[in-house]
Write a structure and sequence with these properties.
Order of helices and strands: HHH
Largest sheet: none
Number of strands: 0
Length: about 110
């Protein structure tokens, strides 16, 4: 099993848990699970549209948070470069400074997208 298989299995498992929680939440809130026969087509469509609108708000919020994290990472990388350059001017041990710089820089190497 490769890493992608593990990710897919974990995703499916997580979806199942969330779906069960949503099912229980719906019963608690409405007294019964969702039944499309209790609504006309327009009502089902309206409910789906409302859920989609909520999803878009969450996805946009996630995008905003990712942008802020990327900005912080970029600032950190710039600061690391400035510190390295200053250290290189003051220390004869260039190899050690560059080694430390690469190690610190690797901590900011996150895969956003």
């Amino acid at each position: 099993m490769n890493e992608n298989d593990k990710f897919i299995r974990k995703t499916i498992s997580n979806f199942g848990m969330v779906q069960q929680q949503q099912y229980e939440k719906g019963i608690k809130k409405y007294g019964a699970p969702f039944n499309p026969d209790h609504f006309n087509q327009r009502e089902v469509s309206a409910h789906a549209f409302e859920e989609l609108a909520d999803l878009l708000v969450y996805v946009y919020g996630m995008s905003e948070k990712l942008s802020k994290q990327e900005q912080k990472i970029n600032k950190l990388q710039t600061s690391l470069k400035l510190v390295r350059n200053e250290a290189l001017r003051e220390s004869p041990d260039r190899d050690r400074i560059n080694q430390l710089y690469r190690a610190a820089l690797s901590l900011t190497d996150v895969h956003m997208f």
